[in-house]
Specification:
The protein contains twelve helices and no strands. It is mostly helical. It has a single domain, classed as Hypothetical protein af1432 (Orthogonal Bundle), CATH 1.10.3210. Helix 2 runs parallel beside helix 4, helix 3 packs antiparallel against helix 4 and helix 3 crosses helix 10. The model has no long low-confidence stretch (mean pLDDT 95).
Length: 201
């Protein structure tokens, strides 16, 4: 059995999962997002040695299986949440043309300007946080689901400074949802704290 960081959600599993909730056109759109993300991240490897795309597929799996979210826009954006950072040719306009304005909006909110961040890290991070605070709840939902997946991979040496990553999550991102009555946010918060405790012992 593969360790968690080497597990993924296959396109066949995703299609089967959505077959009871979405029509054929919407399922096809999500699968297209899956295939685009898989292509963009094809040669990328994470810090723990796992294929990068596995992370994207697991974020989608967290939303669909653990939170019961079957909205085509949200799942497509979850799969695509890192493509603009990791492709030199893909643009927000291409995402909007293929997946719609809302998906493109979510992906843009979740994207940091990595080149600018190389010389202005604090400014870019601060802008990113402010953008998230003022964005739709779906953006934050995907952000926290991605953080949860990363927390679950900390034991495999994903992050060079895992304690800093945990602290950042707790001091910056969780306060954004602590007053929320949204059950999805409550679940993600609970799971993040559970994984934190497991990692820190």
């Amino acid at each position: 059995m593969s360790s968690y960081n080497f597990t993924s959600l296959s396109s066949i599993e995703l299609e089967e999962l959505l077959s009871h909730h979405l029509d054929a056109a919407e399922i096809n759109r999500v699968i297209c997002a899956y295939e685009l993300a898989e292509s963009v991240h094809e040669h990328q490897v994470r810090g723990d040695g796992s294929p990068y795309f596995y992370h994207c597929s697991r974020v989608c799996r967290i939303l669909a299986l653990e939170l019961g979210i079957t909205d085509a826009d949200v799942l497509s954006a979850a799969l695509l949440h890192d493509v603009l950072e990791d492709s030199e040719t893909l643009t927000q306009e291409v995402i909007e043309y293929n997946f719609g304005r809302y998906v493109a909006y979510i992906v843009e909110v979740l994207t940091k300007d990595l080149w600018r961040r190389s010389y202005e890290p604090d400014v870019v991070d601060k802008e990113h946080i402010e953008l998230l605070k003022n964005s739709s709840s779906d953006c934050l939902l995907i952000k926290l689901a991605a953080r949860l997946d990363n927390f679950r991979c900390l034991e495999f040496n994903l992050k060079r400074n895992p304690h800093s990553y945990i602290q950042e999550t707790e001091t910056i991102f969780l306060p954004m949802v602590e007053q929320s009555s949204n059950t999805a946010f409550n679940y993600l918060t609970s799971e993040l704290r559970k994984e934190r405790n497991k990692f820190l012992g």
